[in-house]
Amino acid sequence: MGEFKVHRVRFFDYMPTAIRAMAFNAHTERLALGRMDGSVEIFNFADHYFQEKVIPGKDSRSIEALCWVGGRLFSAGLNGEITEYDLENLRPKYSLEAYGGPIWTITSNSQGAHLAIGCEDGTVKLFEVLEESIQFERNLDRQKGRIISLSWHPSGTQIAAGMMDMIRVFDAVSMLTTVLLVDRGFGGSKSRETVVWSVVFLSDCTIISGDSAGKVQVWDGHTGTLVKTHLVTKWDVLALSVSKDESSVVVGTSEGTVIQFQFIAPTLQQQQDKEWVRTRTFKNHTHDVRALAEIETAIVSGGMDTQLVVRPLLEKFDERSHASALRKIQFPHRNLVFCAKKAGLLLFQFPGQLELWRLGESDGHGKPGDSLPLKRKPEKLLHLKRKGEDHICCSALSSCGGWLAYSTMSSVRLYRLQTDNNDISITKVPKLPKILRSAHQLCFSSDSSKLFAASSQSSVLVIALSQSECKYVHTLKPKSGSRQPIHLMTNSVDGKWLATANSDCEIHVYNVQKLKLHCIVPVYGSCPSAMGIHPTTNNLTMVHADQQIFEYSIVEKQYTDWSRKLQKQGLHNLWLDRDTPVTHVTFNPKNPEQILLHDMHMFCIIDQSLPLPDQKTQFYNQMTLRSLSEQERPSHLHAFKICKTFQDLLSVSLLDDQSLVMVERPLLAITSQLPAPVRQKKFAT
Amino acid sequence: MHKMLVEKEVQPHRRSGLMTYRPKMAKKLLRKSPSSSNKFNSANMTDDFQLHLDSSDDDAPEEVTFEESKASALRSMKNALETSKREKDLLKEKRRKRQELFQEQKKRRLLPAHILEEIDTAPAKKQKLPGDQAESNHEEASCSWEEGREGSKEGYEKETKKGFKGNIRSLKGNYSVMRVADQSSTNSQQQTAMDFIQARLYGPGSQRTTNNELLSLENKRGPNKSAAMQFVNKKWGTEKKAKAEKLKKQWIQKQKVPSS
Questions:
Q1: ipTM, two decimals
Q2: Are the CB atoms for A529 and A583 separated by under 8 Å?
Q3: What is the pLDDT of residues A149-180, one digit of tens each?
Q4: d(CA B105, CA A371)
Q5: Mutate to test the interface with B, among A11, A13, A211, A668 (most CBs of B within 10 A)
Q6: CA A169 to CA A161: how far, in whole Å?
Q7: PANTHER family, from UniProt (chain A) (predicted)?
Q8: Mutate to test the interface with A, among B201, B218, B221, B234 (most CBs of A within 10 A)
Q9: Is the dihedral of CA A587, A588, A592, A598 positive or negative?
């Protein structure tokens, strides 16, 4: 099959941001995730937890809470503003200053007509949700402490507010407030006020609260009395979430544990009153859990360790399957590393800057598995800081290494690079076409003569590049009139074809020379996670979020024979059971039958000339093949050659000189830079 | 001091509510008090004492009815209120007079009304420092008008000089000029909120440890027991290790030098 020299790159200091808030929309089955740097991510839970959309953050924006009202997403943060997001254009629609100081929480009532926010100055402000905006309605009585958490009663007439040392229940009908006093913790924490971090109001007027003393308390909302206290942890209880049928409440703590309480009868005797009983404890995080959501069949948690963990509840599944396994989403489902294949340069995209590195060189030869000595070390050529407050949304590097572009929500910048031996000079291309305001994806053509920018409503702007200036040529528009943004874009090596994929799972192929739509690939139910166009045959290879692989011939406008064969045979179970999506598809110019793919945990070469594996063949057979003799091997070969030597892969590319570049980011390195976890005393350590 | 004495004598009188008898000693003290009591504004009180003093020492103590004492108490309270009111009024008067004086002085400084109107209608230019700039603009305008004026009063001449000086004057008080962009965008309330949450989660009393310890514990308790993170992972804490190396070398050097 081949021997490759591998550039093993570990100098990409990719650092994800901690998760601060999440909100699940049961109608559309989307989870909105708010991170500490102000970015919002939308995950499609109906499509294998694929990260559909990413709205980049901003320096001045802070997110403390998120909430859905119908299909609209609102967030509120410590900068005192309520922001509504435009999910079709991936930007905030507008920001409304609430004039209450920093906002700690935002929640909507079950009818979706009002939004309540809890402010630092002690007011609960009510906003009316209108067609295109929100409008301030009134303030509830101003309190002396800050309002940390809020919860509406399902009827919409009462609001429970968690504050310092107490919970207040506001009644809209009688205009009275009931005060529930939360007592402080034991020992040393008596001197500090107890912060009621989260509160939940159930329809039978039970209030469940989690506070900083580590207690989960169940209150009777009618009488204002405490029913039960559960001391759950020594540290804070940071997040609470109730299931839709109100039979289960999950609680997240600073230790990283998620504890479930269920409303059941404590013993098996009949006619026993139901009460809230602590049932399960999950420890899936190493650091504080700050955001929780209980959806129908799973518990979703996220926190300071930046991982999104989906823990399916096993009693909701009939059998153990792929759907009932624990899922951890650690890396983004899009590319952050771009490789200039001809020049041997790597571009790393950070939210705040771009880094351009030149790969090292090695002369040595060795056996497979050896580490070759470096003749020249990899060096950082360029560190380009972004201008302005908006974080970098996407970037691109041309394959010759001469052009560099990046886009934020407010601007696009294009740079010309010149490398003379060891010097590198960068010049900004000054006047970009006015139509190029921001782009969701950027892509250079392989001869670096054109820049493709994905713009609003799934359209693509074609910009012609010349020596040091650029000109707008044309806008390629899809026929379907979809308003969703493009998240994948790829073009062919001969410069003739451009393929785009949007969040509606539509894939369009455009003829770049004629500047018009060529064909639309039949829509498949799952969103494509990676695409690539073969250099010689111009077949479009697509890998979807549910791990299905398709190959479509652009010239013939139909699926290829190999693709039909694969679909008929079906993919191997172990391939379909993988839990991270494929993020990059690339090809080997020297061997046209090979397709190179990778996901976070494996690197795979699909050889189209070899037979496809059926369910009974051993899937991960590389080790076995090595132990077999030369005569025995051909009978055991199959098309999927998987290598698991390299872990935590962010990107795999093949340079023109036939060497592979594997960019790894060990999870241990990420953990070492996280904020401090709690100190837990373990026996015998 | 005297006031206190007098009131003490009156109080037991009121408290009992019945007819009471005052001790003889008190009478002597009372004799001394007339001189000091004249200092009081309560004329009625002195009248009271005069009445008492008129009677001879050998007589039986006076019968003072409850209504009388009540009346005298009410009178004294009314007097006190009146005095405080009078004092307030006096203060008000003083303040009013002062205000009027200032107004007059200001009027004298200002220009005649028609010139002011003309200045007001002219478009306002850059408003960087609203207070100061407006003032200096105003004064600048006044200066330019002054030059054309005939028969300027002394006050105005003084004004022009002040005006010119004012254009080049330094900012009084604690002002400093800086760009909005240079300041961080978080205002103080936001900063307080961020500090609050930082202090609650990571501040004192939060019992936190390091990631190193977390991972080292995992190493020690895991199925394959191994050493702490900083020893297992060569790249962990490289700065600390480099520093330790340097210190070690320095110590060795120190050890060598005295011996050699």
A1: 0.84
A2: yes
A3: 999 999 989 999 999 989 999 987 777 788 88
A4: 92
A5: A668
A6: 6
A7: U3 SMALL NUCLEOLAR RNA-ASSOCIATED PROTEIN 4 HOMOLOG
A8: B201
A9: negative
